[in-house]
Amino acid sequence: MLKQLRRTLLPPAEPWHPLDLRFDGVVAHLLYCVAIAGVGAAVLPAVAIVGAPVHAAVWQAVVAAAIALGAAWLVSRLDGGRFGPLLGVAISGAAAWLLAQVSYPVGAWIIAPMLGCGIGLVCPTPGARLPRWSVAVPLAIATLLVIIRFAAARDVAMASGAVVVAISAATWAWTRSPGTPMRRRVAIILASTALLSLFTTAYVGATTPGVTWFGSLVHHGSRQSNMVAVTFDDGPNPPFTIEIRDILDQHGVKGTFFTVGKALEARPDVSRALLDDGQLLGNHSYNHDAFRWLDPAYPELRDTEDAFKRTLGVCPAFYRPPHGSHTPFMAHVVDNAGMTMVTWDVSAADWATADGELVARRVLDKVKPGSIILLHDGIDGNIGADRSVILTALPIILNGLKARGLEAVTLDKLLGKPGYLDNC
Predict the structure, then answer these.
(1) Could you report the per-residue pLDDT of 235-247, keeping only the tens digit for each?
(2) What is the CA radius of gyration of the chain?
(3) Cα atoms in the Cβ-side hemisphere of radius 13 Å centred on 351
(4) Which residue has the higher pLDDT, 288 or 117?
(5) What span, in angstroms and rounded, lies between the C-alpha atoms of 14 and 257?
(6) Is the pLDDT of residue 198 over 70?
(7) 370/302 Cα distance (integer angstroms)
(8) For 38, how many CA atoms within 13 A lie in the half-sphere containing its CB?
(9) Which residues are catalytic?
């Protein structure tokens, strides 16, 4: 079995005949896929990361493109039958659309294999012949995609990349030989690729803060207003939460603090000080862990509301899911509680850097009227986390907002909804 697999994936190299564009062998075939569709579409994960709300390093963009190319080459070694190019177009188009939604580098990494599979189904199998222009045109369009991204918009670049794949698929389908491979093998290839696409779509829907496929949520206010909301997650966390409150007060601003239930019960005095000062408090789960958001009943919401009622006598009306991860079940639980799920549209990855000036610059580069800005006065509800980076960044952010004519307000004012429920 291993020998057969090796022969399928790594056939003996044969000469390359440039006159009829026949490519054989591992390296030659990889280059062929790159020329036909890979360059045009595999650049999309890198372009998506560069344009995401959280800025990524160059190596993260390179990894995303490499994942897409690797998946493209592997799938291209397996003949997907007559319907392979059609499915490849659909999957690549869906991946391009999903890439336009991503907020974090890992999101593009998850989508990259899906895009690569779509490209692989579009790529011809080894030994195919295509006209010379089918190589030159995608190469030119690939360069154009990068220009489009920086001259126009990220979604325009994604749509253009999907068109590149469609053109390549049409070309390959036109020249396809009439032979059909074994039906069972084709069915496995197509079904596996389709399942990967469904999983990827579900992942993006569940983990992207601005996506509403899995239930109602708000990630920004009215774009016609001059108001924005500065929000803080994962506290209370002395002494930083109180110092952040003091900075807000010095600038005549009130913020919204999404509170973790276990931290609230550990230090209710800090949250009480925020409440008495006129800051708005929100629900941010009880444990803030990586898995409880998958529980269909989602008791975390109720547990945190109960903690608020016991310690402070209030019931927050706004809920923010940890990491922005949400499911249709969670959305249903939040709606039944009469609460509003709130995410954000501006994040500065302040948990991953100690450079306060960088955090402020990232926020001010992305903010626009109606924005909900995400910052952190704690980390995962753990008391004692060092958040001095916010003490540096916050004054710069507040001054920058004022210079742009933007007023920082609490979420209830931005969204025009009550900040607290009458009862829990």
Answers:
(1) 999 999 999 999 9
(2) 25
(3) 15
(4) 288
(5) 64
(6) no
(7) 29
(8) 26
(9) 233, 376
Note whether 101 and 211 are within 8 A (CB): yes
Closest CA to 273 of 238, 302, 305: 238
Spatial contact of 171 and 124, defined as CB atoms under 8 Å apart: no
**126-166: pLDDT as tens digits:** 555 555 555 565 566 667 766 776 676 666 666 666 666 66
Contact status, residue 369 vs residue 224, Cβ threshold 8 Å = yes
Predicted confidence at residue 363, as pLDDT, reads: 96
What SS3 string covers the chain? CHHHHHHHHCCCCCCCECCCCECCCHHHHHHHHHHHHHHHHHHHHHHHHHCCCCCCCHHHHHHHHHHHHHHHHHHHCCCCCCCHHHHHHHHHHHHHHHHCCCCCHHHHHHHHHHHHHHHHHHCCCCCCCCCCHHHHHHHHHHHHHHHHHHHCCHHHHHHHHHHHHHHHHHHHHHCCCCCCCCHHHHHHHHHHHHHHHHHHHHHHHHHCCCCCCCCCCECECCCCCCEEEEEEEEECCCCHHHHHHHHHHHCCCCCEEEECHHHHHHCHHHHHHHHHCCCEEEECCCCCCCCHHHCCCCHHHHHHHHHHHHHCCCCECEECCHHHCCCHHHHHHHHHCCCEEECCCEECCHHHCCCHHHHHHHHHHHCCCCEEEEEECCECCECCCCCHHHHHHHHHHHHHHHHCCCEEECHHHHHCCCCECCCC
